[in-house]
Specification:
With about 220 residues, this protein is an alpha+beta fold. It has one domain (about 5-205): Nucleoside Triphosphate Pyrophosphohydrolase (Alpha-Beta Complex), CATH 3.90.79. The chain is about 20% helix and about 35% strand. It is built from 5 helices and 11 strands, in the order ααββββαββββαβββα. Strands 1, 2, 3, 4, 5, 6, 7 and 8 form an 8-stranded mixed sheet that branches. A 3-stranded antiparallel sheet has the order 9-10-11. The chain is globular.
Length: about 220
């Protein structure tokens, strides 16, 4: 799907009710402790992340980051460019500012299309607001030292390919978990980032299904 076609599709889809928790839970760990689908606790702090769409080669894709291994929260994990919303700024302003700080994308080059459903992240007590932005040209990107280890330019064709998904089985503090993920350039995208991508893919008409009969264990 070319970038202009993608923009037109999303503009139409964002005018309809969002998939919300029904989409998010397609890539949610089982169980996901502390998460009640569609419920946002009142005492959460607000963060925003930019789901940035842009041309990648001959197709469309999105930008993900690998967080630095020394960060106090979610170290080494794959995420959207983003962070806490500062006092006095909107959700969209926060997403654009953070994307500029983390990967160097210029805010004026991004056309904001809308937002996906907010997602409560129990471990950090944040509610993450995903903002969909699009740019007609592949941006010049560079990772912020000390915060971003790698930038992952991720083609949409990879995200809609069922072979990209698998389920990892983990045990933590006596509880066994099944954790769906999508493999991107040697990294595993799971947790909140995967749940946001799941709603986005449902919006595109390509719901991920790592739980089906062809589920691939890691």
């Amino acid at each position: 799907m070319r970038i202009q076609e993608l923009a037109e599709h999303l503009n139409a889809a964002l005018g309809e009710p969002l998939p919300g928790a029904d989409g998010q839970k397609l890539l949610a760990p089982r169980p996901r402790k502390g998460w009640e689908p569609g419920i946002i606790p009142d005492d959460c702090r607000h963060a925003s992340g930019l789901l940035l769409l842009c041309p990648i080669g001959d197709e469309s894709g999105l930008i993900l980051t690998v967080r630095h291994g020394d960060l106090p929260q979610h170290a080494g994990q794959v995420s959207l460019p983003g962070g806490a919303v500062e006092e006095g700024e909107s959700i969209e302003q926060g997403a654009l500012r953070e994307a500029h700080e983390e990967v160097g994308v210029e805010p004026h080059a991004v056309r904001v299309l809308g937002q996906l459903s907010p997602l409560h992240i129990p471990v950090s007590r944040f509610v993450l607001h995903p903002v969909i932005g699009i740019t007609d040209r592949r941006p010049v990107l560079f990772p912020q030292a000390g915060e971003v280890d790698r930038i992952l330019e991720t083609p949409l064709s990879l995200l809609i390919d069922r072979r990209s998904y698998a389920i990892e089985r983990r045990e933590f503090r006596g509880t066994r978990y099944e954790v769906p993920y999508v493999g991107v350039q040697g990294e595993r995208v799971w947790g909140a980032t995967a749940m946001i991508l799941a709603e986005f893919l449902v919006l595109l008409g390509f719901p991920p299904d790592p739980w089906g009969p062809d589920a691939r264990p890691s």
